[in-house]
Amino acid sequence: VSKKIADLRSDTLTKPSEEMRRFMSEAVVGDDVYGEDPTVNSLEERVAELFGHEAALFCPTGSLANQLAIRMLVAPGEELLTETNSHIVRAELGAGAAFSGITTRTWLSPRGELKADDALNIAKPDSGPYLVSTKAIAVENTHNFGGGTIQSILEIKKLHQECQTLGISMHLDGARIWNAHIATGVALKEYGKYFDTLSVCLSKGLGAPIGSLMISTSDRISKARQWRKRYGGGMRQVGIMAAAGHYALENNLKLLKTDHVRAKAIAEAIASVAPSVIDPKTVETNIVGLDLSSMKITAFELAAQLKEHGILTGPLGSKYLRLVTHYDLDESDINLVKQVLPEVLKRALVA
Ligand SMILES: Cc1ncc(COP(=O)(O)O)c(C=O)c1O
Predict the structure, then answer these.
(1) Rounded to the nearest whole angstrom, what is the distance from the C-alpha of residue 175 to the centroid of ligand 1?
(2) Do the Cβ atoms of 213 and 44 come closer than 8 Å?
(3) pTM higher than 0.90 for the full model?
């Protein structure tokens, strides 16, 4: 009998449920490069409508949706600003530079939390013939490497207002915008209002095996459609995957609340023995980021010890360990983490 594993490395690890698979198998499909896949078309319309935009484009990955979006806003040799630890600059392997000739400058903020002034302080639109001109600012909500941080709608609004005056566009990396929406109650349309382009993922907390969408005006989406094909992302009877997206929106969005409650409970259990490692107040969604800088143990050592107890976690730096809750975990997994992690940390404290 294989030992049960509690896998908290990422919310991308979820497997499609039986019911989702059944729903996918029954999808009506067509050739999406011809624009003839009804399930893709209806998903694109549905998601555009959810965010109050004209159109959307189904993409295999969030990285592609991000990259298509920023290339619609920033020309080669122009500049995108974003937070230092955002996915778009850290985890997309320089795609903006490699594919679109986009230069990037970043600002650093604790937990990736957006303060409009941090972005505005480094923004330089219309910089003339000597300096690079800022064309767009990207915001990540929730912020992944920041620990699932929710961005304040007031800061987003303020940034939007200033960007309108400065002629700077705004992009939202909303891979986990669903988590922000569920945690705050802020409407998806309200988030949609402040951004020229958005990317959203169905393959993170929502549990679809594949699928992200770029969202914007019809004009930008038809241009992005050409670039998607150029990049080799024109897919055929991909309604099978879009059906998983429909299923996820219908059934899994509401489940995120449980992920958030569980993440908070894990943080509280840890803080009760090692308060310097995590402040539960900062755990706003489904990500628990442990800061081990005050401890001797490294993230890799801690992850290895937890693995012996059947718990998988993500050491993303020598002193940063990430745990992510998602719907493939059950109550016994969470109880195991709540029991084992504090014990292991307690031992590390006295070692
Ligand atoms: C914030 C954020 N944006 C974009 C992506 C990219 O998604 P994908 O892995 O589908 O390319 C991720 C992936 O984890 C992410 O966390």
Answers:
(1) 6
(2) yes
(3) yes
